Each structure stands twice: as C-alpha cells, then as structure tokens.
C-alpha cells in the first residue's frame, strides 16, 4: 500500500481534485440557473436551460487547462525548479500528455451535454413561437421585443423560420458549429491508429485548436440566453407576476413587462492567461527554430535507423531528454520528437531515427540514405531543433538501484544513460549515487540490435578492465524467437561471444519472466528504492507497473517511471 501511494498517490490526488472542481462547477451553475432571474427563461426552456449552462462552466475550466500540459518549456522549467524539493511532484509532470488527454475527454463530454441541451432549447424556443396563443405565457414572452423596443427573450423572432436557420445566422450558432467540427476532427485524428500510421493528419488537424479557441471566446457574444435584469426583478417579482401576465404594463397593474439581458461573455477570463502562456511558448520555439544547427555526422545503420549527430551553440542537455526536429526541406510545419542518444559529456548531441513513415523516409532520403555514395556535408539538409525537454529518465542517477527497460527503438533514452555511465565511471572516475543498473532490451528481430551493440560491447570491455562488471547487468531478449529455434542457432554458432550481439552475455529468447526478475532484484537489494524506467508500449508499462506494486514491501520499493512524449 505504501508503494502504491508513492507511485500513484499524488496522481490520484490531482485527478480527484480536478474531478471535484468539475463536479462543483457543474452543480453550482446548474443551481445558479434555478434562481428567480431565470424564472421566465425556464418557462420557455424548462430544466434544459440548466443542463446547457452547467457544462458550459465546466468547459471553460477545462479549456483553461488543456493548453498547459503542452507548454513544454514551461513544464521543463517547473520540473527543474521542483525536482530538488519533490521527486514525486516532478514525476507528475512526466504524465502531462496523459492529463492532456483526460482533459480533452472531459471537454468532449461536456460539449456533448451542452449541445444536446441546446438542441432541446431551440426546439422549445421554436414551439413557443409556433403556439401563437395570447393566453399562453410562453407566447407572450416570445413576443416581447417584437412590437416594442424591449430586449427579446426568445431569440427566434418569427414562426416562419426553423432552428437550423437560426443556428447558421447567429454568432452563437456559427461559432458553436465551428467549435464542434474542430473538436470532432481533433479528437478523431488523435486516435492511436491515426497518430501512428498517419502522423501528418494528427499534426495538422491538431492545429484546428486555433479555430476552436477563437470560436470559444466569441461564442457568448450574441447573448442569446437571457435572464431578467436586477432592476426589473425589483419591480416585477416573477413568481407573482407570472400569473398576471395578461395585465403586464397596464394601468393599475403592479407588474411591468419584464426586461431581459444576457450575461456578458466570460470565457475569455478563463482562457486568456493560458493562451498568453501558449503564445509565449510558441515564440520561444520560433526563436529556437532559427538558431543554427549543424549536422556534423550522418550514420546509416543496417536496421534502417538513421543517426544524426548535430551541434548548436549553447546547447545543453541531461540524460534521457528529447528534442523536436524539423527539416524545412521535408516540411516547414512538422516537428517530430526524438530522444537524445548522446551523453551530456559529449561535444555533440545525437538522435537515432527509425524510418517508419513518410516524414522519416523523406528525411532519410534527404540525408542520402537511399544513395550508395557518401553525402557531402554541404548537401545535407538544414534542420531546426526545439529543446531539449525533460523526461522521467532525468532522475535515473537519483536512485541507488535502477531498472532500465527498453523495447525496440525505445532503447534510445537508455543509450544516453549508458554512455553517461561510461564517461562518469570509466573515463572521469566520478562517483555517482547509482550503484547498480539492470538493463533489459526487448527486440522482435536481430536487426534492431545492430546500432546499439557497439556501445554495449565497449561498455562490457571497459567495465571488465576496471573490475566493474557488477555495476551493469544487462539482458537482451529476442521476443519473436522460440527457444527451439535459438537452440538450433546456438549449435551452429558456438563461441565465447554471443553470435548475434557479439557480447559475452548471451542473448535470451522469448519474453522476460518479470515476476522472477523483480523477485531477484528485491532480494538482492533490501532496504532500497529501485527506480524502474520504461520506454516502450503501454501494455508493457501496465505489466511493469503491476509488478512494481506487487513486489514492493516494507524494506524495498519499486518506483515506476515511464517515458511519455
């Protein structure tokens, strides 16, 4: 239970506070529209009025939050600021995209409720105009503003129209349609299958958020939903005057014709500050994109992985950080995130890019990957860099014992860590807090090992020379190979070093038995906090997080950290 609190306690607290504020705003604004000010509006609309306004308040709150988790520079600043005080709080910032998605789902939910309620409202408005009977209060209320100079209550001014026409001829209607269409496109294109297979679609449609926020700010300027003014309430109590509507404004009557007004638009008060923050964020990115970046070396690895080694004046990084890369010759609008595989001690920074889509294929070709001859330096494409930005892996040297789990190309942040280990321990003889690293690399095929094997071989040899073989324990798994196939392969390739990786540590086949691995680590390191770092698929993350919770006891705790960008 204690480890669950350490891993998830603050996250659950944040989510509960967020849900509590949503619930409070919904309930508060629901009852706000049950007051006397909205008495006559409810005569026309019933409780659909409250059902429309309550989610609108919650929408304002969530739209205030939605931009904050994607202000990468702000998050990096906050992470660096609070890291020295609370590692747990800093770790919550690594879940920014998860929170961003939760807020988006909440926006979608409240938008749906808001739209459905307003569809009922417009039908009620229309019905009040169609039932042209002066003995009905609904008709009398709908006629206010027709033959006099008073403000209207019913925005549908004639019975010769329909709600659809009103929807496309009012500010609220037009902006509402624009907001809804933008939101539908943003959410549908964010599905994982679209994001992974057609990243460009996801990237471009996400920028419809500009239309969404412009529409959101102007949505309430039409003041279609109106309530009785305070002055009118003081003169004519609706609970009394509603029964005397036939004598409103006549001599001897104590009830004047009610006067109505809409609330001034207030959405801008909610979203102005985050919009300014986001504009500043984009200005910082724009400034960085114009800083000169030089590609010093391009390496084409056999597994169709492109390695770019680059330099930029003033560039400073930590282990496990990532950058966004733009290549103007490929696309001037697209920025893609890549983990840095270089160490902070090196005089350049590098990224390994697996060729899996249109953009990466175009970059591969621009760098000469499809050519046999060496690409001349002046022919290499220009690139722009935004970052670096912090991730969970920055905390790796804050734990005495560390588990690093990488799947496929997900090994990239750990390349930076292991390189940094090499520089700190072997080259500079620096002492670090971390005393033991368990490294697990899961790959489906042998080709994926090629670009990383050299680093592991170098580490293995150097640590053997320094008598530090106990510092790094690594296990490499070929997940798509069965043990029977592997046995046949080993018979024909008996050697001191592994025939696939060239390492003394033999490659394992199949998937790790995580229960055994965690049990062994727990027994080897009692009384310690073990940092578990993953860069891989969500299914693997769920499995490791479950193991962290089930294997944590009073004397050992597993703290789960996942790369999330």
From TrEMBL:
Entry superkingdom: Eukaryota
Presence of the UniProt keyword NADP in the record: yes
Cofactor requirements of the protein: FAD
Catalytic activity field: NADPH + 2 O2 = 2 superoxide + NADP(+) + H(+)
GO terms of molecular function: metal ion binding; superoxide-generating NAD(P)H oxidase activity
Keywords on record: Cell membrane, Electron transport, FAD, Flavoprotein, Glycoprotein, Heme, Ion channel, Ion transport, Iron, Isopeptide bond, Membrane, Metal-binding, NADP, Oxidoreductase, Phosphoprotein, Transmembrane, Transmembrane helix, Transport, Ubl conjugation, Voltage-gated channel
Regions that span the bilayer: 12-31, 51-71, 102-120, 165-189, 201-221
Residue ranges annotated for the FAD-binding FR-type domain, each copy included: 282-395
Membrane topology: Multi-pass membrane protein
Pfam families (alphabetical): FAD_binding_8, Ferric_reduct, NAD_binding_6
Location(s), subcellular: Cell membrane
GO biological process: defense response; monoatomic ion transmembrane transport; superoxide anion generation
GO cellular component: monoatomic ion channel complex; NADPH oxidase complex
PANTHER family: CYTOCHROME B-245 HEAVY CHAIN (PTHR11972:SF60), NADPH OXIDASE (PTHR11972)
Role of this protein: Catalytic subunit of the phagocyte NADPH oxidase complex that mediates the transfer of electrons from cytosolic NADPH to O2 to produce the superoxide anion (O2(-)). In the activated complex, electrons are first transferred from NADPH to flavin adenine dinucleotide (FAD) and subsequently transferred via two heme molecules to molecular oxygen, producing superoxide through an outer-sphere reaction.
Annotated protein name in UniProt: NADPH oxidase 2
């Amino acid at each position: 239970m204690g480890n669950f609190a350490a891993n998830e306690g603050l996250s659950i607290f944040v989510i509960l506070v967020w849900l509590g504020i949503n619930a409070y705003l919904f309930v508060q604004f629901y009852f706000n529209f049950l007051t006397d000010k909205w008495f006559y509006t409810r005569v026309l609309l019933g409780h659909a009025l409250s059902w429309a306004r309550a989610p609108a308040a919650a929408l304002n709150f969530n739209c205030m939050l939605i931009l904050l988790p994607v202000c990468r520079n702000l998050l990096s600043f906050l992470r660096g600021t609070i890291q020295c005080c609370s590692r747990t709080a800093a770790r919550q910032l690594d879940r920014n995209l998860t929170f961003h998605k939760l807020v988006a789902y909440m926006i979608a939910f409240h938008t749906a409720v808001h739209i459905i309620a307003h569809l009922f409202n417009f039908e009620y408005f229309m019905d009040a105009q169609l039932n042209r009977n002066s003995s009905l209060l609904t008709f009398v209320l709908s006629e206010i503003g027709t033959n006099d100079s008073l403000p209207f209550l019913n925005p549908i001014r004639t019975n010769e129209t329909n709600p659809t026409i009103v929807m496309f001829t009012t500010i609220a209607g037009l902006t509402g349609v624009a907001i809804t269409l933008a939101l539908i496109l943003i959410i549908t294109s964010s599905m994982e299958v679209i994001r992974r297979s057609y990243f460009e679609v996801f990237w471009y449609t996400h920028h419809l958020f500009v239309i969404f926020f412009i529409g959101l700010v102007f949505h309430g300027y039409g003041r279609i939903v109106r309530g009785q003014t305070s002055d009118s309430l003081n003169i004519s109590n609706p609970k009394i005057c509603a029964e005397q509507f036939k004598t409103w404004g006549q001599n001897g009557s104590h009830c004047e014709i009610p006067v109505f007004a809409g609330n001034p638009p207030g959405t801008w008060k909610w979203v102005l500050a985050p919009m300014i923050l986001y504009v500043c964020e984009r200005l910082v990115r724009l400034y960085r994109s114009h800083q000169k970046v030089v590609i010093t070396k391009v390496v084409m690895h056999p597994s169709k992985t492109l390695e770019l080694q680059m330099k930029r004046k003033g560039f400073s990084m930590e282990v496990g950080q990532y950058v966004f890369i733009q290549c103007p010759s490929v696309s001037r609008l697209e920025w893609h995130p890549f983990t840095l595989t270089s160490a902070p001690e090196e005089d350049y920074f590098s990224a390994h890019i697996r060729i899996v889509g249109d953009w990466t294929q175009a970059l591969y070709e621009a760098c000469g990957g499809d050519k046999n001859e060496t690409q001349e330096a002046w022919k290499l494409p220009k690139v722009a860099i935004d970052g670096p930005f912090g991730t969970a892996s920055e905390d790796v040297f804050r734990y005495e014992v560390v588990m690093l789990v990488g799947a496929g190309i997900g090994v990239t942040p750990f390349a930076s860590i292991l390189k940094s280990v090499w520089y700190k321990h072997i080259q500079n003889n620096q002492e670090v807090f971390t005393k033991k690293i368990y490294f697990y690399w899961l790959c489906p095929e042998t080709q994926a090992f090629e670009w990383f094997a050299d680093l592991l071989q170098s580490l293995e040899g150097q640590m053997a020379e320094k008598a530090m073989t106990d510092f790094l324990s690594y296990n490499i798994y070929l997940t798509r190979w069965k043990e029977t196939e592997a046995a046949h392969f080993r018979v024909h390739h008996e050697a001191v070093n592994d025939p696939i990786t060239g390492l003394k540590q033999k490659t394992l086949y199949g998937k790790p038995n995580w229960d055994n691995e965690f049990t062994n680590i727990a027994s080897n390191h009692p009384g310690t906090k073990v940092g578990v770092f993953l860069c891989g698929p969500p299914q693997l993350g769920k499995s490791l997080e479950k193991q962290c919770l089930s294997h944590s006891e009073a004397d050992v705790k597993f703290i789960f950290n996942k790369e999330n960008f």
